[in-house]
Amino acid sequence: MIKIAKLEIENVKRVKAVKIEPTSTGLTIVGGNNKQGKTSVLDSIAWALGGNKYRPSQAEREGSAVPPYLHLVLTNGLIVERKGKNSDLKVIDPNGQKGGQQLLDSFVEELAINLPKFMLASNKEKANILLRIIGVGQQLHDFEVKEQEIYNRRHTIGQIADQKAKFAKEQLYFPDAPKEPISASELIKQQQDILARNGEKQRLRQRALQIRTAHAAQIQEVGRLQSMLFEAQIKLDALTADMETSQRDVLDLNDESTEELESNIRQIDEINRKVRANLDKDKAEADASDYRVQYDQLTAEINAVRQQKTDLLTNANLPLEGLSVADGELIYHGQKWDNMSGSDQLKVATAIVRKLKPDCGFILLDKLEQMDLKTLTEFGQWLEQEGLQAIATRVSTGEECSIIIEDGYVAGQEGIQLQQSPGEIETGEGWGTTTWKAGEF
């Protein structure tokens, strides 16, 4: 990984002249009071490495007659300079490779010199950056679209099931009503059949009565007509036999009542209303049950998609153990971004920045006064463990600071001059003739 080995800054914003050798790993904290030039150091590094889009709007120090001067030595041997009236970029490669800003862009990650751009991004943007660099963004997006589609279907099914259950609960139920609606024509036909059968029975009674009358008349006729006794006796015997048969036929005859059918016909509308109410209630309960089954099936599908998402991220090459994405947001050890500690937020941001360009081994951090000393120490130890370099500012003059900036100078380097005055001859190597205060944390 490429890091910053040495840097010289002169006449940039509040900086008068500064030389710094950051520690190769861990935190190099540039401390000092407000308006002394701390942030100017970071802005200068960002300008030197990131190009003119990071050039401060008022780059030249107020009151200076000498233009800004930036000189950085990187651990890969590159020397980056900006000097002269136009602050032109010059990249010196000891291996002879030529290049300017394009060469720097090949290994300098923009977010490393502009970490606030990542820190202030929305939660969704942060997550998208991570998903893009680990190569699962589109797959996760497809899973999330599928999950949302199934979720919406399940939600609709659940609403319908609830409505059906509510409708069934509100319906009256009549346990004494028949299972199917009653047909008026069928009842009338049944009534007509009974009346027909009763009519036949009445005809048989009338016939029996006629036979009895004839029998009585015939007895009289037998008495009157002795001469016709033999013929009458034969007829009498026949009639007697018919009478006996007829009597037996009608002895057990009972007329069927149509009272119930007549009542049903009168009450058919009320009965059918009850039947329809019962059928509606039964159907609503059946529909509710069916929709609940569909709801459970969709729930199983959602859980399967969520498991696929979990497996996708579990098997992905994530830049930090415990880091993941859930519902479109970064999650670190179970906490969303706004619930992470300041140290954890910096760990996550730094790990993602490193993943973007693995060759970029440094980051710039401004305003670390928000962290207490314990958090600073933990973050510094994590940086050392990961082999990363961080150059940071902090409003403080305490022992946690690697160097202190006072009135545009590093404390102990007051009055140094980095650029030659016109006509002056350089006699030394520059780095060897100055007393350095290396940043150690």
UniProtKB/TrEMBL annotation:
Q: Name the domain of life.
A: Bacteria
Keyword annotations for this protein, in alphabetical order, are: Coiled coil
InterPro entries in alphabetical order: P-loop_NTPase (IPR027417), Rad50/SbcC_AAA (IPR038729)
Q: Which residues form the Rad50/SbcC-type AAA domain?
A: 6-305
| Gene3D superfamilies, sorted | P-loop containing nucleotide triphosphate hydrolases (3.40.50.300)
Which residues lie in coiled coils? 236-315
Q: Pfam families per the record?
A: AAA_23 (PF13476)
Q: What is the protein's name according to its record?
A: AAA family ATPase
